[in-house]
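ok trying again, last paste got cut off:
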Amino acid sequence: MMTAKQVFYKGHVQGVGFRYSTKRIASGFDVTGWVKNLPDGRVHLMAQAFEADELDSFLEDIQRSSLGSHIKEREMKVVPAETGLRGFSIVRD
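nice, full thing came through this time. structure:
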């Protein structure tokens, strides 16, 4: 059973390589999903994994990385998994 979470990051999270760093971190985990900038200055991440622990470890690694200092607020919720996702990608506007 796939576990999926949607996360909104607030703070100085655009223009600091947030999406690229997130994609690099994702490559070390068995997760799929995407990350994109929002017009209001937040970053929106959607990630899913077959193992809930794997997904949680990935999200914790984002917090523990250099990105953590840019994050002021993190809003997270469990969402239904998206079908057909392959890999982890950066979504451009």
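cool. The two ends are 31 Å apart (CA to CA). The mean pLDDT is 97.
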